[in-house]
From TrEMBL:
The keyword rRNA-binding does not apply. It is a multi-pass membrane protein. Keywords: Cell membrane, Membrane, Transmembrane, Transmembrane helix, Transport. Belongs to the major facilitator superfamily. Proton-dependent oligopeptide transporter (POT/PTR) (TC 2.A.17) family. Pfam families: PTR2 (PF00854). This is MFS transporter.
Amino acid sequence: MTTSTEAKRDTRFFGHPIGLANLFGVEMWERFSYYGMLGILPIYLYYSVAEGGLAMPEATATSIVGAYGGLVYLSTIVGAWVADRLLGPERTLFYSAVLIMIGHISLALLPGFLGIGVGLVCVAVGSGGLKGNATAVVGTLYGEKDSRRDAGFTIFYMGINLGGFVGPLLTGLAQSEVGFHLGFGLAAIGMAIGLTQYTVFRRNLPDTAREVPNPLPARRRPAVGGVLVVLVVVIVAGVLSGIVTAANLSDVVVWIVGIASVVYFAVILTSRKITAVERRRVLSFIPMFIASAAFFALYQQQFTVVAVYSDQRLDRDLFGWEMPVSWVQSINPVFILLLAPVIAAIWIKLGERQPSTPIKFALGTSVMGLAFLLFLFFAGGTGNSTPLLALAGILLVFTVAELMLSPVGLSLSTKLAPDAFRTQMVALNFLSVSLGTALSGSLAEYYSTDHEAAYFSVVGGAAVAIGVVLALISPFVRKLMSGVR
């Protein structure tokens, strides 16, 4: 076991602690498996049985994908609680990785709907547990004032995008050449490699990564177990009674996350532990929470509407060879790798002259809406007629919008957080992502290639309108932010 002091003095990985190499690797393989699976999941659900799929209606398939994505981000809150109260971030990360691998194996080996049910639940909960805790463990490698800290996180996030780029390429090729289950199997193999590597080298992580910050008293554990049992019973009853179905799953998740968000805001705003200034800052986060949810409702349609569009409307012919549908999912990570340093450099260059956070949110949401309006240039076409280069250009606009809003959200939630509710404000940011991702599945139910002009007009126009409204009220929002820029 490595002590905290030893880890912070370590320079064996290009000047960084060797533990960063382990975390880079496990996150890369987790993203490889996650995006690799997600790249072929929608078409697996709605392709015919003859094509190796489950022959679901397209609306049901996109509902499941949207609900699954929403549950991943909802599970980050559960993962954070488990780390804070029960296991610590390092062990939570390890068990989450095990759960993810079990999920991918289930998708690869279990037939039909059984594999989908077991696989997606395991991957969603596991990914939620791994996502936040991997970041937390990276933080334990560095001292508070360590000048290597930002560079270390940059290297770590390179692993995310590298995995997100390669995963859909390999699983999509396996699916198109052999079949879906080999594609899911590659995702399982990728996660197995990441888990094996992490297990072998986890001793290089500092002992602080294994600490439980706020241990749950033993006397309260039975009550927590009881709540968990009740939750499982309610879910099972909802499914068996027909209240929750595959077709309305994303709508159910939207309602759950929406209610949870309202409760979170109400608890914080009515607490006696916050000051008047802190209360105003929390109020200022509400319009940006709405803008964030609207942004991700469109952005996450890469895995719902854009996946269907890539299958049915995109010309994927490459010199006589048809490109797999999932390869489209590898375009965005490339643009992120290329543009993230550019956007960061622009903000640094502008310094105090850069747009305020509300304006960045407004720009991100409006540009995302503009990306959907760009689809109108190709609306009304027949078959796979949209040029691949055109879709790549639209996804470039997706990426620009993402870099304006997504990196800012987490930072903003920490800056606006009251002292007594720092973790809860971060949870609210994840809830906005969860709400938007679930909405991406609900909105996709209204998409069809026969009415795509109306769909892209309404959805894109609504996002632009939300961005414009936020820009107009930004002076009032900045006033509520009380000095936070």
